[in-house]
Structures are given as structure tokens and as C-alpha cells.
Write a structure and sequence with these properties.
Elements: H1 2-10, E1 17-22, H2 26-42, E2 48-53, H3 63-75
Parallel strand pairs: 1-2
Helix pairs in contact: 1-2
């Protein structure tokens, strides 16, 4: 985590977005929270970041829901587009 704080202070993420999600696995969730604490202390508006806790997910299941959430948050689509032929 110390290295992460040093990288943030160096400012190389300026203009970038960081998305962090944590599962119900406490060891990994604890590391994610530690990283978020560093972001809160060091980022100071240099870049955008988001943290989402996903307690219903495990390390093995978090990727897909976190990726969908990250894409929606980062790219901000106006509304969901159904696949052709699957309109309601």
C-alpha cells in the first residue's frame, strides 16, 4: 500500500479514473478498504475514483458484476440498449 500512496502523490493518474470493488472475502475487502483510505487521503481531486462494496460476491464471482458496474459508471450510457430481437 505504501507504493500505491507514492504513485498517487507522483500524480501520474491525473485525468484518469480508478474503480475499486470488494467482495465478501474479508482479507481482500480489507486490502481494498486500505487502498480506498489512501485514495481519500492522497487523491485530492487529481483523478476520479469509485469504490463499491459487493458483499454478495466472492473473489470468484465479483468480476462480471463489478465490470458491468464500472462500465456503466465510467461511460454513463443514457439507457440500456437491448440486443436486436430481444426488445421488450
Amino acid at each position: 500500500m505504501k507504493c500505491g500512496a507514492e504513485l498517487i502523490r507522483a500524480g501520474k493518474q491525473r485525468g484518469q479514473t480508478i474503480y475499486v470493488a470488494s467482495s465478501n472475502e474479508e482479507a481482500l475487502a480489507g486490502l481494498a478498504r486500505d487502498f480506498v483510505n489512501i485514495l481519500q487521503a492522497e487523491a485530492s481531486g487529481a483523478f476520479e475514483w469509485h469504490y463499491v462494496e459487493m458483499p454478495d460476491e466472492t473473489h470468484g464471482t465479483i468480476y462480471h458484476p463489478a465490470a458491468v458496474e464500472a462500465f456503466r459508471r465510467l461511460f454513463k450510457p443514457e439507457r440500456h440498449q437491448a440486443w436486436p430481437g430481444m426488445e421488450k
